[in-house]
Request: fold
Amino acid sequence: MSALSDAARDYLRLRNSLGHELAEHHRELPRFVAVLDAAGLPTVTVAAALSWAQGPNVEPASSVAARRMTIARGFARYMAGIDARTEVPPPGLISGRRRWRPPFIYRPDDIAMLMTQARGLRQPMPAATHETLIGLLAASGIRVGEAIRLDRDDIDWARGVLAIRESKFGKSRRVPVLESTLAALDRYTRVLDQFCSRTTSSSFFVSMTGTRVIYRIVQSTFRRLCDSAGIGADAASPPRIHDYADLRVMPMLV
Reply:
């Protein structure tokens, strides 16, 4: 453990003791410290913070880059009281602002068509996974990342409630669902038991190999299903899987 790692641990412990929700800080700050250590830097510099925030696979002006810079700036302020050489990145280096675009408004027929297209996928396990996932997103309004992070124990079958853990901004919540939604989820578990009976994953939605389904596959499959069904072909705002999160379209899965 380096001196910077010790300082980062103390900083997070202090922030936690003040009641701050810091799930993302706990994930990202050790990565930033590792970058500083690898560069042989004893403390934070503006150049290092900017380079890390806009690192590989991160769009320079994206919300991810902006959040990373916020994490680096908070740690730099703490380090400035320990090491006078610390450079605190000024606000405004990364705006993180994107032009707002209206969501695609799904009609019930659009959801039914997408689920029908998913049902027609060649392999039974992916067909059941994507059909059920699309239905759950439309019925509950939870985000796609929240859905694919669901574990089997996160479903309260008796009360009809989903436990959404450490979602956006590190917060958790409970989402009630209708009996028809619960019945559709139960049907999926029977498909899971039939085709992935030996899986050791705790995930509710799984791939053909029994591992947790990943966002990249969900996104590409959804895009393919939309194109096959012709949904949103002439729309000013093409359909995105994230558009579900703002809508409660159907009472549930058909």
Observations:
- The longest helix spans residues 63-80.
- Confidence is low (pLDDT under 50) at residues 248-254.
